[in-house]
Amino acid sequence: MQIFEREKMPEMVLLAMGEAQKRLTLLEGHARSFVQDKVAYVRDQKVWHDVDQGLRDFGHKTAERLNPTPLRKKVEDFSGQVSDRAFATVGIATKADIKTITRKINRLKNDLRKITRKQPARKSA
Q: How many structural domains are present in the chain?
């Protein structure tokens, strides 16, 4: 897609574009003014104030009923209890701790195998 350079466009086209831009700017100003006047008119109506106050009251009542603070506290307490129980049961170990414990278990297992192999089998009487 080729973009036209302003210098290469005919003067008649440039004048038409300039006039169109002026008209669009004027229309935009009129539209903004019209919308602002209508919004101001609606806001001045008693019905608007009644609806606005009703929505504010509803929001406050709903916020009081749906107050998340007690529920949040219960969730935090429960979460703390669960994590405390989990750490008490499982504990926290690093990879080095796990390797050390695994080596000790393997040594004990090997020692147990050696002991069981050396003992002669018992004969039943």
A: 1
pLDDT tens-place string over residues 3-16: 667 677 788 888 88
Kindly state the DSSP code that residue 4 receives in the 8-state scheme.
P
Flag whether 54 is in a domain.
yes
Q: Is 19 in a helix, a strand, or coil?
A: helix
Q: Is 105 a domain residue? A: no
Per-residue CA distances from 14 to 1, 9, 10, 26 (Å) = 20, 7, 7, 18
| 124 falls within a domain | no
The domain containing residue 50 runs over which residues?
8-67
Encode burial over 78-109: b for 16+ CB neighbours within 10 A, e otherwise: eeeeeeeeeeeeeeeeeeeeeeeeeeeeeeee
d(CA 112, CA 119): 11
For the entire predicted model, the pTM comes to 0.35
CA distance 51 to 14: 51
